[in-house]
Amino acid sequence: MQDQPxxxxxxxxxxxxxxxxxxxxxxxxxxxxxxxxxATVDAVLKAAFRAxxxxxxxxxxxxxxxxxxxxxxxxxxxxxxxxxxxxxVFLAFCADLTRxxxxxxxxxxxxxxxxxxxxxxxxxDAALVGMSAYLAADSxxxxxxxxxxxxxxxxxxxxxxxxxxxxxxxxxxCLGWPDDVPPQKPRMDFARMVHRDxxxxxxxxxxxxxxxxxxxxxxxxxxxxxxxxTTPDSWTHDVDNKFHxxxxxxxxxxxxxxxxxxx
Length: 263
Ligand SMILES: Cc1cc2nc3c(=O)[nH]c(=O)nc-3n(C[C@H](O)[C@H](O)[C@H](O)COP(=O)(O)O)c2cc1C
Prior knowledge:
Number of strands: 4
Helix content: 40-55%
Bound molecules: flavin mononucleotide
Largest sheet: 4 strands, antiparallel
Strand content: 5-15%
Number of domains: 2
Order of helices and strands: HHEHHEHHEHEHHHH
Structural class: alpha+beta
Radius of gyration: 21 Å
CATH topology of the largest domain: NADH Oxidase
Number of helices: 11
Distance between the termini: 41 Å
Low-confidence stretches: none
Shape: globular
Strand order of the largest sheet: 1-2-4-3
CATH architecture of the largest domain: 3-Layer(aba) Sandwich
């Protein structure tokens, strides 16, 4: 980030290198054959590990997968996503309670029956590290996409990655040097997602219908431009299609088996 000399706010630019990286970000699923060195991955992760962490618990670990055989094992868990097979690097961002458990054990306690908060803070920690890594990678010219589909079968993912009890993979991330960078997906209207002082003070219940109609149209136009099949109610349709059947309904049991009680 560039240094900002002390100036009144009105004279400061409302942009920066960091803001530009964020403003230009897009998920990229296609990479060149060029390898990504271990030094580059380490630089990305060292920066990412500066992310804030709840009560300094640092309840995360990352498995950096380069071995094509391991990626080939992971791909079916993710529904055979092509980029999982093809990306030179796959980073598995894990919530990790092993060190916390060790600290409790030393003090005569245990992590049995750990509560929802314990699983949540570790998951948030891992997510913050994941996003930080994503931005650090992007700032070096690497591109990628997060892979939540590792939770299609959290047990299989844990087995493939050799995760011990008290560790689960929150999401993965394919990284590589970009081959094809798609146009950015439109986002919902900023003004409808930012509230001033209290939620909804400027809006009313009808706004949600207008917001959805506007966004459905914008996303449908985006997919049409790319020649991708869609429906006029693109976002509403896709979200309902994905979530009405309660996907990954067995996840709570799977995570309990991995040592995260979430209760
Ligand atoms: C936690 C998380 C999991 C995701 N899982 C997948 C995935 O399994 N496969 C995939 O292709 N994209 C995945 N994505 C990428 C999203 O589909 C993508 O961010 C979203 O459609 C918005 O597009 P954009 O990132 O290009 O703006 C995931 C994103 C997040 C944050």
